[in-house]
């Protein structure tokens, strides 16, 4: 039964503290409800992010226990009931070689969603190691309820009406990875779920496989093209921009997981920037007498360690200020007018070169900064009509650099950690239609304030690597996006 607590801690990314938990006599997930914050130091949980995770886990256990009634907590055999407890969300089923519990959580599947095929298998599973399945869904969300906005059908009209979409893209194994014998441990076989097979070793040194299941608005497998991804992510945002709205598309994930491939693409397979530009210019060509002629401008800046740098103006330092109408303005940000897809892509390539050139100076590499490309739709008086922003976020693995001995790396990691957490909070507030959006918690969310309020739509694309070597980062990316 001790392994239940272990898997519960794994689920929250806190497994390294397991020995301290057992040393203090905490052996079952239900015991977590007894913890208060004053116990965290005794458990060795000092790091802010881990404290937050533990706090949420304890709240989740308490909430579910409250719902279930105290008597079940006291069950003689210490087992947790099948529904309405942490077991429902954090599946701690006993080793069985097949999952029974995932099938018992059918009510948690999202509307219109097909079940995960039983045939999903990865090479790592041939060894017949015991299998546990951990089911995540968008309702997991640290015990917060499902967004009402997510309920309902999922046709094209529904996609267009959604304020936020969260999607996952898995890239194929690269040639070099295959040659090194790396295994593909990610299944993205239907369009809404991802299955990650994680090899684990129990405290008694026996091997088992944890199957993590996550559900998203869309899941793109390795055979999906940039055009497929574009159709379901940025394309619905283009119409919104022409309707006078603000739209934002984030690319999130570990370095090397495919963010640049998705956003920038290649000559043979153009990415989201080029495909969006193609449709923006096509729309501009259509007459719209009510508005008069419209044109496009582009700006490109980077956020590194809480500072803004203009990538179209020699990395000039920029400052974000709120004006009298509480609109955040980036003072002095250079905007280039663009007349064709070709010139727009040239400007982006120019800014990207500036970003990587800066990487050898101010920041050690470009994955330590967030890059923000904004395409502004303006009328003949240069008044803003609509805007679409593409954010290539810093490599998600950088957030773990807070434990690095080098001071600069540690500071960068802390900043990235803070900004990604703030972004998650803002997206959650947007999703759950909270009246307050905590956008002041980081420079990233501050400058993107208008992406979270008013007439805005957001799309998050979490990029993941299929390799078993990257399993931990892949799970972190999926948990972040979940
Ligand atoms: N969907 C895909 N299909 C084919 N190849 C891909 C795909 N996604 C990524 N790749 C390849 O994987 C490698 C790493 O991808 P990419 O550079 O886009 O990662 P990244 O997340 O942007 O990393 P970084 O943060 O270092 O820029 C590249 O060689 C890219 O061509």
TrEMBL record:
SMART domains: KISc
Residues that bind ATP: 253-260
Subcellular compartments: Cytoplasm, Cytoskeleton
One Gene Ontology term, aspect cellular component: microtubule
Presence of keyword Cytoplasm: yes
An annotated GO BP: microtubule-based movement
Family annotation (InterPro entries): Kinesin-like_fam (IPR027640), Kinesin_motor_CS (IPR019821), Kinesin_motor_dom (IPR001752), Kinesin_motor_dom_sf (IPR036961), P-loop_NTPase (IPR027417), SAM/pointed_sf (IPR013761)
Record has Flavoprotein as a keyword: no
Transmembrane stretches, start-end: none
Region feature Disordered, mapped onto this chain: 66-130
Sequence ranges assigned to domain Kinesin motor in this UniProt record: 163-482
Composition-biased stretches (Acidic residues): 69-78
Residues forming coiled coils: none
Major localization class: cytoplasm
GO terms of molecular function: ATP binding; microtubule binding; microtubule motor activity
Keywords carried by this UniProt record: ATP-binding, Cytoplasm, Cytoskeleton, Microtubule, Motor protein, Nucleotide-binding
Stated family: Belongs to the TRAFAC class myosin-kinesin ATPase superfamily. Kinesin family. KIN-13 subfamily.
Name of this chain's protein: Kinesin-like protein
Classification lineage: Eukaryota, Metazoa, Chordata, Craniata, Vertebrata
